[in-house]
Amino acid sequence: MPMKIGTENFKERVDSGIQNDFMRAAVSGAQERLHGRRLAAAEELGNWEEWRSHGEEIRQHVLENLDYYLDQLAENVVKLGGHVFFAETAEDANTYIKEVIQKKNGKKVVKSKSMVTEEINLNAALEEVGCEVLETDLGEYILQIDEHDPPSHIVAPALHKNKEQIRDVFKEKLGYTKTENPDELTAHVREILREKFLHADIGITGCNFAVAETGSISLVTNEGNADLVTSLPKTQITVMGMERVVPTYEELEVLVSLLTRSAVGQRLTSYITVLTGPKQVHEVDGPEEFHLVIVDNGRSKILGTEFQSVLQCIRCAACVNVCPVYRHVGGHAYGSIYSGPIGAVLSPLLGGYEDYKELPYASSLCAACTDACPVKIPLHELLLRHRQVIVEKEGKAPISEKLAMKAFGLGAASPMLYKFGSKIAPSAMSPFTTGTSISKGPGPLKAWTESREFPAPNKERFRDWFKSRDKEGEKS
Amino acid sequence: MKVTLFSTCLVDMFQSNVGKATVEVLERLGCVIDFPESQVCCGQPAYNSGYVNEAKEPMKRMIETFKDAEYIVTPSGSCAAMFKEYPHVFKGDEKWEQKAISIAERTYELSQFIVDVLKIEDVGARLEGTAAYHTSCHMTRLLHVTDAPFTLLKHVKGLEVVPLPGAHNCCGFGGTFSVKMGQISEQMVDEKVMSISGTKADYLIGGDAGCLINIGGRIERKGMPIKSMHLAEVLNSR
Ligand code: SF4
Question: Is there a single domain that holds both residue B127 and residue B223?
Answer without folding.
Answer: yes
